[in-house]
Design a protein that fits this description.
Two copies of one chain form a homodimer.
Chain A (H helix, E strand, L loop, with lengths): L3 H8 L3 H8 L7 H13 L6 H8 L4 E5 L12 H13 L5 E5 L11 H8 L3 E4 L9 H6 L4 E4 L8 E6 L1 H14 L5 E5 L5 H16 L7 E3 L4 H14 L5 E4 L2 H13 L9 E6 L12 E5 L1 H16 L6 E4 L1 E4 L9
Parallel strand pairs in A: 1-2, 1-3, 3-4, 4-5, 5-11, 6-7, 6-8, 8-9, 9-10
Antiparallel strand pairs in A: 10-12
The structure holds a DNA duplex.
Chain lengths: 334, 334
DNA sequence: GACTAAATCCGAAACGTTTCGGATGCTGAT
DNA sequence: ATCAGCATCCGAAACGTTTCGGATTTAGTC
């Protein structure tokens, strides 16, 4: 491993000069710079970023919290999509991404704050943590630049990027209402998710404006199985329901399969609309009416904001677009 | 930021002792260790891994090359799945993962070797690079611990993990043969992919054993659109074809949609079998017969081997299982 | 009481870089 | 001849750790 010292020695200058030459400072003669660059090339020199990080107190890396990064998440692709988005933006900069795991047992008691400090990341994007996570406050109030995805909270050093779940759900509600539905239930995620609260709010708002209210709300925990169970539950308690809004496509798909088991089918017997527009949504039969969100964009914008902050900008909030995708799982109420 | 020095000062010992105490060395009195640990806690100390890395010459991070990590890859989930697998294994260790981008323009001329050196990763898992990548040899012959996924090459410090594509394709061939097909074509990926070569070999082997040979082989570049185009091409040149083997599900899905455009349908008019068993495969209609490979396992095993190597083990090769999933897109030849 | 061995501690160097605060030499003006 | 100003260079400290080689104390043995 050749270092800056080696270059200095063989080029006959000091390490200071080598450093300054390689970093493009002005107070080094063009001739000596040439020589230095050349010997660096000959010695096959690559800078040691670790040493640089140590003295600069900047690591040029951003952390990505992937707490619940378990196999389950592979089906809906949420985390992976935002990861891809983060990566896509970061690849245009000189920042690298390091993945943080918090699910390992020994690290469990470490706070995010400690994790970040320890790995010396310059900033961090956080996703998928619960509203009641004890460490959330700590990071928001902390001094580590941070951007939250789908968690609408701000702090001195933390901004967030999200979609407008309230309006998205509102539009889903309007859609169902427009089709003439009045007996409507909802399968929500769980109470510790910000998006669940928002989607419930937005959907209810639409119903309320029409003088209606939800027949029933079940929590399906965002899982396919939870969607199945919730649908069964709803159908038994309210057999007259004609439409169900699901807070995630995965749950909607579960609901769809449960419906099939009951010998009924969508959209004839029941209109179903989902949320997320995951990859499967348009391939499943019937193709799912759902509100699409730009998950890749979430990650991309998160990285953009974070790196912006590292370059001196203030944290903010950015809302990425969503869109109601009307497909085959919802139809006019008979 | 409190350092080891601060602890030393307030605990009234030397930095050496603090270091040794915190790292569990034996030659420090239990009483002073207690004191040190306690003051460390009080001062909210977290070790600076960068400084540690600098002196230890180990960064406790592994790199993951995600060269073609573009949106396209989001649909088939290959890279993301292996990423998830790598992460899953790594989360049980004290290694972190850093994502390497090579698609950024300025980094383009840097070799993988330089990238690894620069970021000081202890090892790297590489996926998705072409057979003719000029830097592949460099990394294989190099001294950086490395494991390749789906690239069957070994070196002094490089092992690989893969599936048995030859047998997988062979089984696909046997399946089609068993259904009575004799007019068979193949849509392959591209010539610079190891898996393409292997899948072609395996499939041809099956046909040859039956005294048959391929009607036609098209390259679809692993994309949905490429699959469409290839199918159209094959159907026009060999209208009598009854079965097509695609080297990826994405291409198979493209082929399926092209078939539909022609007013034909699978499996009645044409049996189609894919490869990969991506998430969509079982949801698409008709559900795709395909050979499933454990992509998550690929990543998991890659991480396992790499970290094993970092702990002193020798590089090896590990083959993860595959399985022919017979679904609805293939049927008896009429 | 002297010597050995063990237990416990510490000073200082090292890792590879950046950067502050000069030092040196040269040019041209006075 | 002196000096200001500039261009070019460099020494040394600093970043926060780990670790080598030894120093000091204590306990045990004869």
């Amino acid at each position: 491993m050749t270092t800056i010292k080696d270059i200095a020695k063989t080029a006959g200058v000091s390490v200071t000069t080598v450093s300054r030459a390689l970093n493009g400072y002005s107070d080094v003669n063009e001739a000596t710079r040439k020589k230095i660059v050349e010997t660096a090339r000959q010695l096959n020199y690559t800078p040691n970023t670790i040493a640089r990080s140590l003295v600069m107190k900047k690591s040029k890396t951003i952390g990505l919290l992937v707490s619940g990064f378990i196999r389950e998440s592979l089906k809906d692709n949420f985390m992976l999509n935002v990861l891809a988005g983060v990566n896509d933006f970061a690849s245009g900069t000189d920042y690298d991404i390091v993945l943080f795991n918090t699910n390992s047992s020994k690290q469990r008691e470490k706070t995010y704050h400690q994790l970040c400090r320890e790995r010396q990341v310059d900033g961090v994007v956080i996703q998928g943590i619960k509203t009641d996570d004890p460490y959330l406050e700590e990071i928001i109030d902390g001094d580590i630049p941070c951007v939250l995805v789908d968690i609408p909270k701000m702090g001195p050093k933390t901004g967030y990027v999200s979609t407008d779940n309230v309006i998205g759900a509102y539009e889903a509600g309007k859609h169902l209402l427009g089709l003439g539905h009045t007996k409507i239930a909802m399968i929500n995620g769980h109470d510790q998710a910000f998006v669940s609260q928002e989607r419930l709010d937005g959907f209810q708002k639409a119903l309320n404006e029409a003088g209606l209210s939800l027949l029933q709300v079940e929590n399906g925990g965002f899982s396919e199985e939870g969607g199945r169970a919730s649908l069964l539950n709803i159908m038994s308690q309210h057999p007259d329901v004609t439409a169900i809004f699901c807070a995630s496509d995965l749950m909607a798909i579960g609901a769809l399969s449960a419906l099939k088991e009951l010998g009924k089918s969508a959209p004839e017997d029941l209109s179903i609309v989902g949320y997320d527009d995951i990859l499967l949504a348009k391939y499943v039969t019937p193709a799912l009416t759902t509100v699409s969100q730009d998950t890749h964009g979430l990650g991309y914008e998160a990285a953009k904001m974070l790196i912006g902050m590292l370059e001196g900008k203030q944290p903010g909030k950015t809302i990425v677009k969503h869109e109601l995708m009307i497909r085959d799982s919802s139809q006019q109420c008979l």
